[in-house]
Amino acid sequence: MTDLVIRTLSASDAHLFDALPDPLGAREAHRRTRFRPDWKRVVLRDGEVVARGAWWGGPDDPEPVNINWFDVAEGEEKAGAELLRSAPRQVELEINLPGGWRDDPVLRAAAEARFTAARAAGYELLVERFLYRWTPDRGLPDRPGRLNFRPEPDDTVFFDALRRIHSVTLDAHALKAVEEGGLDQAAQEELDFFHWCPSPRDWWRTAHTPDGDLAGIHIPAHNPSGPTIGFIGVVPEHRGHGYAYDLLVECTRHLVEQGAEHISAATDRGNIPMAACFAEAGFPVVRERVNFHPATATTAEL
Asked: What InterPro entries does the entry give (predicted)?
C-alpha cells in the first residue's frame, strides 16, 4: 500500500476538496456554510483524494470551532483516521447525515465508514441529534397564551436560569460541560455562544407565569448560516406543564417577525419531550447529525 500524503489546502488547490463522491449529501447540506480554504485538508494516495475534512469557525474566529464535513473513500477508513489524528487542532467532529440514513444500506455503510475512521482516530461518540427546518408553508403555530414574555438586559438573570435548567438537563453537550466544570461552566458556555452569534442581544426573552414566576427562557438567534432556534429551556419547578412548546412557538414567531423565511433547529435524539414539541410546532426533521468529541485535545492551531 502506498504512502499517504496529507495536504492542507489553499485557494490555488481548493478544488481537490471536491474530488470525492458525496453519498451523504454534505454539499447540499452546507450550501450556506462558508469554509476557509486553508481550514480544509485532504489525504492523497497515488495523487487521488481518499479522505477530506473541513474545519469550520465564524468569520472572525482565529481558530476552528469544529469539523463539520468529513468524508472517506470506500475502504479508506485508515486514511480518514490519519487525517483526523494528524490535525494540529483537535475539535468536535460533526457528521451530518440524511434523514432515515439507518434504513438505507448504502447510506448506512457510508455513515459507518466515517464512524469507524473517527473512532480509530481517538474520537468518542457524544450524541446523535435531529436537525429541523421550518418554512412558511408549514404554517405559524398559534401562541398558547399561557406565559408572559419579557426582554431582560441583565446577563446574570439568564446565567442563573441556565444553571437551574442545566441542573436537570437532557442535553448531551450541557451534561458534558457540567461534568467538566459544573453548572457554572455549562451556563457560561451557553452565554458565550449566544454572544458570539451575530443576532442582537435584545432578542433574548424570559418567560413568566401569570403570577410572575420565571418559567423559562428562549433565545432566538441568527448563526452564520441563518435564523435558528437558539435555546429553549424550562426551569425545573415549572416542568410538566408543556411550557417548552410555548417557548418554542414564541421563539419561532419572534424570528418570523424579524424577517426569517426559514428557521433551523436541533435537539438530541434522546430528548423526546423537545422532539415532540418540534413536531407539534411544524418543524420537520430534514437531516440528522452524529457528534464525536476527541478523547484528548490540544491547543495548537491549524
From this structure: Acyl_CoA_acyltransferase, GNAT_dom
Nearest to 129 by CA among 166, 102, 97, 177: 97
Instruction: Say if strands 40-45 and 205-208 run parallel, antiparallel, or are unpaired.
Output: unpaired
pLDDT, tens digit (0-9, with 9 covering 90-100), for 77-86: 999 999 999 9
Which tens digit of pLDDT belongs to each residue from 216-244? 999 999 988 899 999 999 999 999 999 99
Does the predicted TM-score (pTM) go above 0.90? Answer: yes
pLDDT at 220: 98
Mean pLDDT estimate for the chain: 94
* CA–CA dist 128, 289 (Å, integer): 6
CA distance from start to end of the chain: 28
Query: What are the distances in angstroms from CA 80 to CA 48, 49, 144, 244, 291?
Result: 14, 11, 49, 40, 16
Q: SS3 sequence, the chain? A: CCCEEEEECCCCCHHHHHHCCCCCCHHHHCCCCCCCHHHEEEEEECCEEEEEEEEECCCCCCCCCEEEEEEECCCCHHHHHHHHHCCCCCCEEEEEEECCHHHCHHHHHHHHHHHHHHHHCCEEEEEEEEEEEECHHHCCCCCCCCCEEEECCCHHHHHHHHHHHHCCCCCHHHHHHHHHHHHHHHHHHHHHHHHHCCCCHHHCEEEECCCCCEEEEEEEEEECCEEEEEEEEECHHHCCCCHHHHHHHHHHHHHHHCCCCCEEEEEECCCHHHHHHHHHCCCCEEEEEEEEEECCCCCCCC
Q: Extract the C-alpha cell encoding 194.
A: 449566544
d(CA 213, CA 211): 6
Exposed e or buried b per residue across 121-145, where buried means at least 16 C-beta atoms within 10 angstroms of its C-beta: bebeebbebbbbbbeeeeeebeeee
pLDDT of residue 296: 60
